[in-house]
Automatic annotation (TrEMBL):
It comes from Thalassobacillus hwangdonensis. SMART domains: AAA. PROSITE patterns: ABC_TRANSPORTER_1, ABC_TRANSPORTER_2. The keyword Transport applies. Keywords: ATP-binding, Nucleotide-binding, Transport. The lineage of its organism: Bacteria, Bacillati, Bacillota, Bacilli, Bacillales. This is ABC transporter ATP-binding protein.
Length: 258
């Protein structure tokens, strides 16, 4: 059974004079442990779709179902990681990671130990009492990942979490996040504008048309790529073929916008 079902989601933004169709009739499923990327031209509604899945905004029509049960998305089941880490500069790294349990009144010895274990897992054990300003961009994003994982969400929602990083740090963090998600057997949805990133991180890629965002095509990443870490997948012979295929479709969509 599907972990998440996106069922005929549409979303319109209204003003006093007019309205804009952001998304139109989006449907797909996310299986347990699966990684899906949402790709498309700027303004096609990728982040809006992620916000609807997270339960942050209601869709104009359609439904989000988790664990095949009817009803609105339960935000407790979601972990949201954004382009910016949004760590509180006046709190230590450990205090930032403990933010979720504090909000949900779950601060206890077990959670304290879990925070320390996660910081060790992401390679930040020596920085538990440091402040965000003392860490590099990649380290801050790893802290943000630990903060996201501590509440044990079923699904991770990733909104271009690597785009603000330099290219080398981005590549290292892609490998790290991919490995950690497989280790914890988490399902994930990534919003990105980077075709390469979508290919090396994903099991499937959903390509959206320009506004209104509709599903143009769903690509299945070859199994020989899915079995490799992202850095190695970029160098695999199968990579260029699917890249060229998606690039062709993306270029056609960009041309349609003009």
């Amino acid at each position: 059974m599907s972990l998440l079902t996106v069922n005929q989601i549409s979303h319109h933004y209204y003003t006093k004079q007019d309205y804009t169709k952001a998304l139109e009739n989006i449907s797909f499923t996310l299986e347990d442990g699966e990684f899906i990327s949402i790709l498309g031209p700027s303004g096609c509604g990728k982040t809006t779709l992620l916000s609807i899945i997270a339960g942050l905004i209601p869709p104009t029509s359609g439904k989000i179902e988790i664990d095949s049960s009817n009803g609105e998305a339960n935000t407790v089941d979601m972990g949201y990681m954004l382009q910016q880490d949004y760590l509180f500069p006046w709190k230590t790294i450990k205090e930032n990671v403990m933010l979720g349990p504090k909000i949900t009144h779950q601060v206890n010895t077990k959670m304290e130990l879990r925070a320390l274990d996660l910081l060790k897992e992401v390679g930040l054990e020596p920085t538990v009492n440091h402040y965000p300003g003392e860490l590099s961009g990649g380290m801050r994003q790893r802290a943000a990942l630990a903060r996201t994982l501590i509440t044990e969400p079923k699904i991770l929602l990733l909104d271009e979490p690597f785009s603000a990083l330099d290219f080398q740090t981005k590549l290292r963090l892609e490998d790290f996040v991919s490995g950690l998600l497989k280790q914890y057997e988490k399902a994930a949805i990534l919003v990105t504008h980077d075709i390469s990133e979508a290919i090396v991180m994903s099991d499937r890629i959903i390509l959206l048309k320009a506004r209104p965002g509709e599903i143009k095509q769903i690509f299945t990443v070859p199994s020989d790529l899915r079995e490799l870490p992202p850095f190695q997948a970029r160098q695999h012979p199968s990579f260029q073929g699917i890249f060229d295929e998606i690039w062709k479709e993306m270029s056609a969509l960009e041309t349609e916008k003009i």
